[in-house]
Amino acid sequence: MHVFVTGGTGTIGTAVVAELLDTGHTVLALARSDASAATLQSAGAEVLRGSLTDLDVLRTGAAGTDGVISLAFGRDYSDPEALARGIAEENAALTALGEELLGSDRPLVTVSGTPRAPGRAATEEDPLPTDGPVGGRALSVMAVLALASRGVRSSAVRMPRTVHEEGRGGFAGLLTEAARRTGVAGYPGDGSQRWPAVHARDAAVLFRLALERAPGGTAWHAVADEGDAVRDIAEVIGRRLGLPVERVPDETFGPFAPIFAADQPASSARTREALGWKPVHPGLLEDLENLRP
């Protein structure tokens, strides 16, 4: 397949582009900057210049390809307004892509987070929360999945709180950045809350499988580690960086504080059985051993 990819130079996107190319697909990737274009071309992808807000460019990319994987999302999480702006931009982009694919039976694969199910691991059948700081993303994903009734083979890959590679990425990466900045490997709450995780290259395989074979209107869980305790994550970060490990106030983590403090394990049993997905790369705690002081 010739696949249009947005967000192809992020932690997940880089792995997705490589996975597609390695398995015989060709890639047209959106590039906002010269640096992104050069990175994508070096990987073997064709480049389409533009940003997530260039809706006509997105429509052009979707129109000329056999399917779409949409991963791009704004990187400014500094305050609620910036986060809301990124969610609105993503929603407009997904709407434009979906409209271009109507009636074509071509795949549109988007990304979201795993939900929370109090007292147990969340499953693929659990609904995404539509409240909280990122609730708007859930509404966008629900709209994409609803396109299955209008001739789009739409699906969503739900990502855990940490997508990692070489010790970098996701919520664990944010903890690492905060530790380097403050001199303390801090964690919210009592540290017993669990975060699911997946290696970026394992996640990339699931995006490919969803593109190739997922039925329309379906959601899948890219979860390798069902739930690592946040204190255990902080302990590895502290040891690798040579920093003390301490509980810190929840507000240290800004708009993400409620999410950081929540216990949110997730299962991928249905995904593994239905799509044959088998994570093979290191788990989060092992991968964090790659951190350098």
State the main characteristics.
UDP-galactose 4-epimerase, domain 1, 11 helices, 2 domains, alpha/beta, 293 residues
In spatial order, strands of the major sheet run: 3-2-1-4-5-6-10
Q: Tell me the helix content.
A: 40-55%
Number of strands: 12
Any guess at the CATH architecture of the largest domain? 3-Layer(aba) Sandwich
Terminal-residue CA separation: 42 Å
Radius of gyration: 18 Å
Name of the level-1 CATH class of the largest domain: Alpha Beta
Main β-sheet description: 7 strands, parallel
CATH topology title of the largest domain = Rossmann fold
Q: What share of the residues does DSSP label as strand, in percent?
A: 15-25%
Structural class: alpha/beta
Query: Helix segment count?
Result: 11
Give the ordered list of helices and strands: EHEHEHEHEHEEHEEHEEHEHHH
Shape: globular
Uncertain ranges:
none
Mean pLDDT metric: 94
How many distinct domains?
2
| Oligomeric composition of the shown chains | single chain
Provide the CATH superfamily of the largest domain: NAD(P)-binding Rossmann-like Domain
